[in-house]
Write a structure and sequence with these properties.
By secondary structure, the chain is of the alpha+beta class. The chain folds into three domains: 109 residues, no CATH class; 102 residues, ATP-grasp fold, B domain (D-amino Acid Aminotransferase, Chain A, domain 1, 2-Layer Sandwich); 61 residues, no CATH class. The chain has eight helices and 19 strands. Strands 14, 15, 16, 17, 18 and 19 form a six-stranded antiparallel sheet that branches. Helix 1 crosses helix 8. It is globular. It comes from Candidatus Lambdaproteobacteria bacterium RIFOXYD2_FULL_56_26. This is ATP-grasp fold RimK-type domain-containing protein. Pfam families: RimK.
Amino acid sequence: MKPQVLLLTGIYDFSADLVAVQLRSDGIPFLRLNREQMHEFRFELDAATPRLHVVEPESGNSWFIDNELVSVWFRQPVFLRNTPSMPLSPEEQLSRSQWMGFLRAMCVFDNARWMNWPQATYLAESKPYQLLVAGRCGFALPPTSIGNVLPSAFREAKKEQILKSVDSVLLKDGQDCLFTFSTQVEPALLQTQQLTQVPFILQEYVADKTDIRVTVIGKKIFAVKILSKGKPIQGDWRITKKDQLEYTDFSLPLSVEKACFELTSILGLNYSAIDLLETKDGFIFLEVNPTGEWGWLKSDSRPLDREIASWLSLKQ
């Protein structure tokens, strides 16, 4: 079989499940490769042509991929952030690194459209670079400092600050997974802390705000307000219990919508999840996630799975 769409993802990717169901419903031939199961297939890649032959020994199924491939949905980390709770054997380390390298080698099919191109994802995940590009696109930005010192402007400020990680954090402590969220802190507390060990992002806290999540899929855009009991959430909404969160459809002003498309385009992305704050003075950019999850936003009015499948099959 010659698939039109290549899905590079993982076993437990719920969003990929939704898109796979939609592609199957639309009659679009696709091949899904989960990174945890790569060793169960047999691959032969001719990078110069390029041409890939894939065989699944258990079923006897085989696939041929060449420059007629329409699209690739790259649902893979561009690098692994999490550290295993138990040391990996040399064999496991070798397997993990080499299969990730093989997945990145799918970039030889550069005539296909990608959501998203791995190199673009790598750069777009840099929060400082996001701020630079967002500012150039006309977004308002909160006063921000990045480093491992407390600048005088923040040290002397009387307003609360938001402390963030420079990069997404996923740590292992035994069997526990540890995440970090944006932390609201008093200026006086910051002055008493040892801040030189790791770099951090410090931003001025915005009190009266409504969180906005914008999802860009090709030429389509969806925006929601994130509320709890019909009201805006103070602080980081991600620490609110899921059953207390509400997502209300929201129409962005045309100027903000244009800026979202421009930001996504300049970053070289075809998909992006953008976090904004709505205040009485307008909209403030927080960050963009080129691999942001969207399954929790899917609804009849937000058919995100259908839009992604349409983009992958050239219908959008």
